[in-house]
């Protein structure tokens, strides 16, 4: 496994004016909802002091743990014993294990259980306007408060000083004042029964584990998240405490004030870590001059890039979208104009860039098209030398009822960036005006070649279908430095070695991605099963050239009768 640590130069990577750069914190990356929510659930069950959550959206009835991560209904005795011992190994006490085995592990039930043990539970949810909400904030609030959980709806983005679609977009979890999570995943299933955030790395076309009460099977969902320990976890808690206390002061709820806590203990780590935020001016009392840390991180990252830029993002907008999907009508976005210019300069000096985007973003597909076209037009040598590629993700499935093969796009919600296999970031900030300037966001960035390189390998291996699901899961556990038994350790090391052999060089890895995407495009045209999930991201004009039916709202992969 790759363990070489590149020498850290004096190159500046960090944001100024908000949170410190830490050398005593540890970051662990998680890919997709299954692994992320499993780890969150375990942390909630082990909690002894406090659980704080701040989310863009939440469905309290959403199951955090499903499928193979649960004990079978009628297990063999040795299977049951092994499973229970595994929970003990994860630090659960006997009462916790009994709860785990006898209850639905939904958000609300796990939080209520923690509170029943004396754990302080506080939930902060964005009070989304009905016109823009994908969930019902009041219903979520009521489900939690009925169980005695303190939940506040944060209206800090409302008022004449805010743009109409400003949102409080952070996905923050803090447990026991020492463990934090940030990333792209809310514990949410959207109100139309689509876009369930829990998904596996296989992103199946249809599975009972994601089927809703209405019988609908949500689109696949690809995302990334990070767990943080050490002093940087305290920076995440500071963010939660600032937001919470600002809100309760405005609404005269001082009895709910959260006092400052001692900083978490330092942890041994080879990483350099920083928490960065976007908080628009006038949203909270602590942001009178706007906090623009995430765009600063990207400023340095794109400027520093010498070999490779790997991006996953929901959006890639040069201009700001405000309701009309015509890029020329969008307002200027100074931050994204600068970032796209920085990427063009990187491409001109020989950097290889790949970006994973959704074929069907919820808004603004034309805006991503326009930004990609600009890259291609202003760095033609990168196109000629096969150093610039955009991809999307999809899944396929043969339906017995009609005897046909069907395709669905996988929604890319991940906000991850990896530069030169050295620096990486995961968080809630999208590559658009909102993530860089207009919404409240939070990211974690690390300077650590072990983390950056390993995350790139795991993501690319998932997308091209390089490994079997159990092999990819074992490799991910190895990258997270989890304790493995002898058999699992051997599988993990073999799987990681296979990823190394195929994907170690960033340029060659992108060529494998390009090849797989082109092969899958032909399979799509021939109505054959996809291998892995990669397809080329096609602009509307390119899709038309391929005689594909592209629709502004749904892209070219989605079948018209799916809606």
From TrEMBL:
UniProt domain PLD phosphodiesterase: residue ranges: 164-186, 408-435
Superkingdom of the organism of origin: Bacteria
PROSITE patterns, per the entry: PLD
InterPro entries documented for this protein: PLD-like_dom, PLipase_D/transphosphatidylase, PLipase_D_fam
Hydrolase among keywords: yes
A Pfam family annotated for this UniProt entry: PLDc_2
Record keywords: Hydrolase, Lipid metabolism, Repeat
Record protein name field: Phospholipase
Annotated organism of origin: Dictyobacter halimunensis
């Amino acid at each position: 496994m790759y363990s070489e640590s590149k020498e850290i130069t004096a190159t500046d990577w960090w944001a100024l004016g908000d949170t410190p750069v830490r050398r005593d914190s540890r970051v662990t990356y998680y890919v997709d909802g299954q692994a992320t929510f499993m780890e969150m659930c375990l942390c909630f069950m082990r909690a002894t002091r406090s659980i704080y959550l701040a989310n863009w959206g939440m469905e309290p009835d959403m199951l955090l743990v499903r499928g193979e991560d649960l004990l079978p209904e009628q297990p063999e005795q040795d299977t049951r014993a092994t499973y229970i011992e595994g929970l003990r190994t994860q630090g659960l006490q006997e009462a916790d294990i009994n709860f785990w085995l006898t209850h639905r592990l939904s958000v609300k039930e796990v939080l209520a259980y923690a509170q029943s043990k004396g754990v302080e539970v506080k939930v902060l949810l964005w009070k989304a306007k009905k016109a823009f909400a994908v969930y019902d904030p009041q219903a979520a609030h009521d489900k939690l408060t009925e169980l005695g959980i303190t939940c506040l709806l944060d209206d800090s983005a409302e008022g004449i000083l805010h743009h109409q679609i400003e949102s409080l977009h952070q996905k923050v979890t803090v447990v026991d004042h020492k463990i934090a999570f940030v990333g792209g995943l809310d514990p949410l299933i959207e109100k139309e029964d689509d876009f369930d955030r829990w998904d596996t790395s296989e992103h199946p076309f249809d599975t009972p584990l994601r089927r809703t009460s209405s019988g609908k099977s949500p689109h696949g969902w690809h995302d990334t998240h990070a767990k943080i320990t050490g002093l940087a976890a305290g920076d995440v808690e500071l963010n939660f405490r600032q937001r919470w206390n600002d809100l309760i002061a405005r609404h005269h709820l001082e009895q709910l004030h959260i006092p400052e806590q001692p900083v978490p203990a330092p942890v041994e780590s080879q990483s350099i870590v920083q928490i960065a935020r976007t908080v628009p001016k006038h949203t909270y009392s602590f942001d009178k001059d706007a906090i623009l840390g995430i765009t600063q991180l990207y400023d340095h990252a794109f400027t520093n890039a010498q070999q490779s830029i790997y991006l996953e993002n929901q959006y890639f907008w040069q201009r700001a979208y405000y309701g009309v999907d015509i890029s020329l009508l969008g307002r200027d976005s100074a931050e994204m104009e600068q970032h796209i210019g920085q990427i063009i300069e990187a491409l001109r000096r020989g950097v290889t860039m790949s970006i994973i985007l959704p074929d069907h973003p919820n808004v603004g597909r034309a805006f991503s098209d326009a930004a990609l076209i600009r890259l291609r037009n202003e760095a033609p040598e990168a196109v000629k030398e096969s150093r610039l590629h955009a991809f999307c993700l999809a899944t396929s499935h043969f339906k017995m009822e009609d005897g046909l093969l069907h395709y669905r796009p996988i929604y890319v919600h991940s906000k991850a960036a990896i530069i030169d296999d050295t620096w990486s970031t995961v968080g809630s900030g999208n590559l658009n005006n909102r993530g860089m300037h207009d919404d409240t966001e939070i990211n974690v960035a690390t300077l650590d070649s072990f983390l950056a390189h390993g995350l790139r390998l795991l993501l690319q291996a998932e997308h091209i279908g390089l490994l079997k699901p159990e092999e990819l899961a074992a490799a991910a556990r190895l990258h997270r430095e989890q304790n493995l038994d002898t058999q699992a350790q051997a599988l993990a090391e073999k799987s990681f070695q296979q990823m190394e052999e195929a994907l170690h060089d960033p340029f060659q890895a992108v060529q494998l991605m390009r090849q797989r995407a082109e092969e899958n495009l032909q399979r799509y045209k021939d109505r054959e099963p996809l291998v892995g999930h990669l397809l080329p991201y096609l602009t509307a004009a390119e899709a038309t050239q391929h005689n594909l039916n592209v629709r502004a709202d749904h892209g070219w992969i989605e079948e018209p009768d799916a809606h």
